[in-house]
Design brief:
CATH topology: Purple Acid Phosphatase, chain A, domain 2
Number of strands: 10
CATH class: Alpha Beta
Radius of gyration: 16 Å
Strand order of the largest sheet: 3-2-1-9-10
Largest sheet: 5 strands, mixed
Shape: globular
Number of helices: 5
Number of domains: 1
CATH architecture: 4-Layer Sandwich
Distance between the termini: 38 Å
Amino acid sequence: MRLFIVGDVHGCLNTLKEILDQNWKADETLIFLGDLIDRGCYVPETVEYVRNLKIQHGDRVIVIMGNHEHEFITHFDHEPNDNWLWQCGSNTIKDYKEKGYDPLKDLAWFKTLPLYFENEHIFVSHAGIAEAAKDPYDLRGANSIIWNRSKKRNIGKMQIIGHTPNPVGPRYDEDSNTWNIDTAAVYGAKLTAIRIDNNGKIIEVVSINVHEDDLLC
């Protein structure tokens, strides 16, 4: 099956709906790179929407854990997570409370999310396999698969990642064969997705402007 991979959404629900409604095709597996939550205006609504897509389409929808989902988990399991609260967590908790959503329901779902997806051609994760990582799956490390911002390792497959915002557009690193498609949606730039064929070749990169309503709150 072809893949349609969506970058960091960060609560920009209206933008997400537009990119899916106009571009996601019935013969494609939909993959989210993580960071569904925090900073945008529709955090709990975005989680509910994506979770319902997963329920409706089953294995055709894959949601990978990002560092923001991990921060959410850490907070509710070992309260408080001051680093998350200071950055954006306090606003997220307020959003859940004011809108009547249960964060513990989303907590349970976040804990089930995989750290990566791979096939014979590509490896998809939130932040990529770092060249310097001794154990990229140790989530406590700065070079882990959800936190890494350092040079990526060439693993013999194309890596597709998000995590590090690039407002100017998607960025390709030839040395590591890595595409970063986080195009800073939450900072008012664009939401980007990438379409990949059955042989691991890029068919199309799609970027759309973020809806003002997703940010003006």
